[in-house]
């Protein structure tokens, strides 16, 4: 088991969110969109220019920039 | 209880709750909410054991591919413009012929009434309505892309580049609309949540060359750059995009410093657009242009005619007319740009009311059809290709039309930003045209 920021995950990697460490508006937005501890996420792809990233969680797709994903920590098996 | 006491009590509760739950209250609430939803779903929904790959996923594998994503995006944009231009040409010809016939019929009346009706109203309204096909078709294309879900992917593909220049992935859609008409572009900025991103996008969108500017370029490039006309028109679009990028960067460094909006956005599954949905979207956007054609531009056309015919007895659109006086007043300002003649200045003044009027009012001033306008400019004003180029750049960049300014006013709910937009864009246009003319003159050795 290894914990790493969501922004460091590679396409195809999946894991369980352990902590959403961002603050302010971003924090609330992430929570609203279901980015909460104990949720399973998978990084599906990275945009052609290397940012943003495209993740799958709760059966839907979400995009976010790497800087926004940097404070979301994920337990990767 | 005073305000401070309330805030203190709140903070105390927050710390207290954090001790109990081991997490901040927002996270706890969101966790509980999703926990409840999860429980409900477990009781009511049967999921297949293996998640199946949907059609939408398969499409995304190709369309937002790491390597093919950008070429495909550019291909779709190119295809869209090809479609818009190819499909609108026959319709535009039809409108052109129709209004030409009407104007001819009206001129039979004779006298000042016949002149007002045929030279002023019919020709003027016709010259605006001719843009209805390309603008509406562009809106159809954008609505299709939006309704099927591709625009969200386009924002995903483009966000890095847009973010770099100080815009947002979502700024992309308003800027695309700007190629049709700046008014819906300014209105589409509503979808950008962050106020700094929104204002930056709104203020740079007038630099994206709208459909109304195209006839100025087509006409002048066709006459002064015969063989390379297409290249020159393309250069105008590029200069507009360049000015938008530069301004976005500048505004971000000066006026709107600070964080830009987030990009936490859902990517919905692809859906087949419905004709009704597309029609509704097209109409919502296109209606703004039509309303303008019906009101502002109609008024302008009559105004130009009046100014060109007054005072009584003066030769139509001559130096002695009110139009001539107005042009002469502004003309000296444009001497460094290379086009300090009153005719050019007068047409630019009217261009503020609507940019497509620049060509139309020049036509009226020289009393020639648009086809003969280029040679009139060359013969009577002695314009060179360099001057024509500087004039095109100025027309591209200066003051967005009055209807756009009105839209900026209502969308920002302030008096400051419309004035800023007027001053900034005219300043940029004057500097750009002057630089082109002066540097070009030295380079060519004229």
Could you explain how this protein is built, in words?
The complex is a heterodimer of chains A (77) and B (446). By secondary structure, chain A is an alpha+beta fold. Chain A has a single domain, classed as Ferrous iron transport protein A (FeoA) (SH3 type barrels), CATH 2.30.30. Chain A has 2 helices and 6 strands. Chain A has helices at 24-32, 66-69, and strands spanning 2-5, 14-20, 40-46, 53-57, 60-64, 72-76. Chain A is globular. With 446 residues, chain B is an all-alpha fold. Chain B has 2 domains: 15-47; 60-446, no CATH class. The radius of gyration of chain B is 27 Å and the shape is elongated. The N and C termini of chain B lie far apart (79 Å). At the A-B interface, α1 and β5 of A face α2, α7 and β1 of B. β5 of chain A pairs antiparallel with β1 (265-266) of chain B.
From the structure above, extract its key features.
heterodimer; A: about 80 residues; alpha+beta; SH3 type barrels; 6-stranded antiparallel β-sheet; 2 helices; globular; B: about 450 residues; mainly alpha; 2 domains; 21 helices
Biggest sheet character of chain B: none
What Rg of chain A is obtained from the alpha carbons, in whole angstroms?
A: 11 Å
Mean pLDDT of chain A: 90
Shape of chain B: elongated
* Beta strands of chain B, count: 1
Going across the major beta sheet of chain A, what is the strand order? Answer: 1-6-2-3-4-5
What characterizes the major β-sheet of chain A?
6 strands, antiparallel
Please report the number of helical segments of chain B: 21
* CATH 4th-level superfamily of chain A: Ferrous iron transport protein A (FeoA)
CATH topology of chain A: SH3 type barrels
Beta content of chain A = 35-45%
Residues in β-strands, percent of chain B: under 5%
Q: Multimeric state of these chains?
A: heterodimer
